[in-house]
UniProtKB/TrEMBL annotation:
Belongs to the class-III pyridine nucleotide-disulfide oxidoreductase family. Its EC number is 1.6.3.4. Residues 3-306 form the FAD/NAD(P)-binding domain. PANTHER family: NAD(P)H SULFUR OXIDOREDUCTASE (COA-DEPENDENT), PYRIDINE NUCLEOTIDE-DISULFIDE OXIDOREDUCTASE DOMAIN-CONTAINING. Residues 334-430 form the Pyridine nucleotide-disulphide oxidoreductase dimerisation domain. It catalyses: 2 NADH + O2 + 2 H(+) = 2 NAD(+) + 2 H2O. Its cofactor is FAD. The gene is noxE. Pfam families: Pyr_redox_2, Pyr_redox_dim. SUPFAM superfamilies: FAD/NAD(P)-binding domain (SSF51905), FAD/NAD-linked reductases, dimerisation (C-terminal) domain (SSF55424). This is NADH oxidase. Keywords: FAD, Flavoprotein, NAD, Oxidation, Oxidoreductase, Redox-active center.
Length: 444
C-alpha cells in the first residue's frame, strides 16, 4: 500500500482524492482540512447572497461521508501545524486541542489561496469582510439582512468584487465599488470590453470609484467610513475582494517557489521534492498561451491539476495539457467570456501581438427577439500568427464559443487557419457571415 496524505479538501484536493480512490485500490488516502465542510463552490456565493438562487445547500457537491465510504480517512476541523518533509511526517491538531501525527509515502499540498489584506489603518475593525470560505459568505449574507446596513463598499473590481457588488445591489443596498485600477476586470479583458461592463454597472446604480486606492478604514469599533486619496465615504459595511495569493506556507522553506510564492511544479504536478505534489491555487500551472509556467487561480484549473496529481501518484504517468485560463462572468444579464491573453496581458508579458475586432448582431436582423449585439476580439502573436487569446461579450449566451478558442490556443492554431473554418449557419443561432469568421478575415 502507498499512503498519500492530502492537505486541503476543496476542489483540487477532492479531485486528487477521487482519482486515487476510484482508480488505485493499493492507495491509502488520508485527507486533512481545518474547515467544517468541503467542496464549497465559492463562485456561487454571489448568486446566493444576491438571492438569484434559493439557498447555499446545493453549492456543496460532496461530503465527508462520501470519502469515508470509499475508504479514505478524513479529518475535518483539523489544522496541520507543520510538516517534516525529511521524516515524511505531518503534525496535526484537532479542534479540541488534541495533537497527532501521520506519516506518508506521498503528500499532496492542496492548501489553496488566501485573500490579500492590506494592513492599512482600521483594517481590523468590525464590519470588514472577506469572501473565500463558506462561513464568510454566511457572515456577509447575515449583514446584508440588517436594516442598518444601507451602504456597502466593495474593495476590488475583479470577478469576486463585481459579482458581490451586483449581489449587494440586488439586496437593495447602496453600493460603492473601488479599485486602484482605472476600470473593472483588467486582468482578463481589454478596455473595449470593460468600458461596456463599467457602463453596465453604473446603469444599474453601482457607484464606481476607479483609480482610488483605499488608504484607511475609519470607525471606533465598527467601520463607518473608507478613505481613499480622493475622499472619505460613509459606509455601513466593507467587503474586501482585492484578490488572492497562493497559500504556500508549509513548504516555503523546503520546496522551490515561483516568483509570486506559489509552489513551482512540473507538468505532473510534482514539486522539487519528488514525494511532494502541489495542486490548485497554491501551485503554478503551465500556460499554453505564454508557452511558459505561470499562476492562474481558477476552480477549473484546480480540478484538472488534482486529477493529474492523483494519476501520477497512482502510477499512471499523466502530463498536464496546460491551460488557457478560460473564464466568464454574467452581471445584470450582460455576459463576458475570455480565454488566453488580452492585448494588455500579452504586452505585460513582453509578447508582441496583433488583434482583430468585430461587432455584429448574434443572429440575422430579421430575428427580432433574443438577438443581441456581440463583440469579439481575437489576439494573435505577431511573429507566428498563432492565436493566444479571445474575448467576447453580449447580452446573448455566447459562452460556448470561447471553448473553441481555448482549444485553438492549446493546439497553436493560427489566425489564418480560422478564416475559412467550417462554421454552420442557421438563423435560429447565428449569421451567414459568422462574427468569428468575420473577425478572422479582418486580421492583417
Amino acid at each position: 500500500m502507498t499512503k498519500t496524505i492530502i492537505v486541503g479538501t476543496n476542489h483540487a484536493g477532492i479531485a486528487a482524492a477521487n482519482t486515487l480512490l476510484d482508480n488505485y485500490p493499493d492507495q491509502e488516502v488520508v485527507m486533512i482540512d481545518r474547515n467544517t465542510n468541503l467542496s464549497y463552490l465559492g463562485c456561487g456565493t454571489a448568486l446566493w447572497v444576491g438571492r438569484q438562487i434559493d439557498g447555499y445547500q446545493d453549492l456543496f457537491y460532496t461530503n465527508k461521508e462520501a470519502f469515508e465510504e470509499k475508504g479514505a480517512k478524513i479529518y475535518m476541523e483539523t489544522s496541520v501545524t507543520s510538516i517534516d518533509f525529511n521524516k515524511k511526517i505531518v503534525y496535526c491538531e484537532k479542534k479540541d486541542g488534541t495533537t497527532f501525527e501521520e506519516n506518508y509515502d506521498k503528500i499532496i499540498l492542496a492548501t489553496g489561496s488566501r485573500p490579500i489584506s492590506p494592513k492599512v489603518p482600521g483594517h481590523d475593525l468590525n464590519g470588514i469582510h472577506f469572501l473565500k470560505l463558506f462561513q464568510e459568505g454566511q457572515d456577509v449574507d447575515r449583514e446584508m439582512a440588517r436594516d442598518s446596513v444601507k451602504t456597502v463598499a466593495v474593495i476590488g473590481a475583479g470577478y469576486i468584487g463585481v459579482e458581490i457588488a451586483e449581489a449587494a445591489k440586488r439586496r437593495g443596498k447602496n453600493v460603492l465599488l473601488f479599485d486602484a485600477a482605472d476600470r473593472s476586470l483588467p486582468s482578463y479583458y481589454d478596455k473595449w470590453f470593460t468600458d461596456d461592463m463599467d457602463k453596465n454597472l453604473a446603469d444599474h446604480g453601482i457607484e464606481l470609484h476607479f483609480g482610488e486606492l483605499i488608504k484607511e478604514y475609519k470607525g471606533t469599533d465598527r467601520v463607518d467610513a473608507v478613505v481613499s486619496e480622493k475622499g472619505e465615504y460613509p459606509v455601513d459595511m466593507v467587503i474586501n475582494a482585492i484578490g488572492f495569493g497562493p497559500n504556500a506556507q508549509f513548504g516555503k522553506d523546503h520546496l522551490e517557489l515561483f516568483a509570486n510564492g506559489a509552489y513551482l511544479v512540473d507538468r505532473h504536478q510534482q514539486t522539487s521534492d519528488p514525494d511532494v505534489y502541489a495542486v490548485g491555487d497554491c501551485a503554478t500551472i503551465y500556460s499554453n498561451a505564454l508557452d511558459a509556467t505561470t499562476y492562474i487561480a481558477l476552480a477549473s484549473n484546480a480540478v484538472r491539476t488534482g486529477i493529474v496529481a492523483g494519476h501520477n501518484i497512482g502510477g499512471t504517468s499523466v502530463e498536464s495539457a496546460g491551460v488557457q485560463g478560460s473564464n466568464g462572468i454574467s452581471i445584470f444579464g450582460f455576459n463576458m467570456v475570455s480565454t488566453g491573453l488580452s492585448v494588455a496581458a500579452a504586452e505585460k508579458n513582453n509578447m508582441e501581438v496583433k488583434y482583430t475586432d468585430y461587432e455584429d448582431l448574434q443572429k440575422p436582423s430579421f430575428i427580432k427577439e433574443e438577438n443581441g449585439d456581440v463583440k469579439i476580439r481575437i489576439v494573435y502573436e505577431a511573429s507566428s500568427r498563432r492565436i493566444v487569446g479571445a474575448q467576447m461579450s453580449s447580452t446573448e449566451d455566447i459562452s460556448m464559443a470561447i471553448h473553441m478558442f481555448s482549444l485553438a490556443i492549446s493546439k497553436h492554431v493560427t489566425i489564418d487557419e480560422l478564416k475559412l473554418l467550417d462554421i454552420f449557419f442557421l438563423p435560429h443561432f447565428n449569421q451567414p457571415y459568422n462574427y468569428i469568421t468575420m473577425a478572422a478575415l479582418a486580421a492583417e
